[in-house]
Amino acid sequence: MLTDIDTGFDAQIQLWIAAVENKIDLITGRNFIADATATARLFDGDGTTKLIIPDAITVTEVAVGQDSYGGNFLVMQASGPDRFFTNPANHAAIRKPITSIDLNSHHFTNGRQNNRVTARWGYSATVPADIEFCATVLVAGIINEQRGGGDKITMEKIGNYSVSYDANDQNSMADYKSAVAALDAYKRYYL
Known about the structure:
Number of strands: 8
Shape: elongated
Distance between the termini: 39 Å
Largest sheet: 6 strands, antiparallel
């Protein structure tokens, strides 16, 4: 924005930033800042070898339920013939999160909350630059709106004072459209 903002508004701006972060997560169906430590989550099994999971940057354990209600688990190995695979392959190199797990020689047992995955949940260790751009554009829009502006004066008249504003500021609108397009590109769909 290239604008100095009074430090008295710092707390309000932090609230707007948090609100925009939450909105971006809701729009995309993703959490862009991965957890600092791995935690376990339970998933329903459907008898197949593939389990769709929320975004994760690392998977440290996959445990298959030995019954339909999650009373006993068999921990899968990260290597060897009975291993599990994370997808997409080479996820770190292509800068994508892990979104599913495949088993080589077992099935995710049919049942409710009977399969356990321990992972660092989230899209990436650091927020992607284009998502930071989106958040900046959206927060800047809120600040401009609160300042009662953003519109450019396109005409003024001194005698019988008159002013006209360009409500279609193309620079701001281009940034907004670019931000929306970036968010659309990051949307996660569950089928």
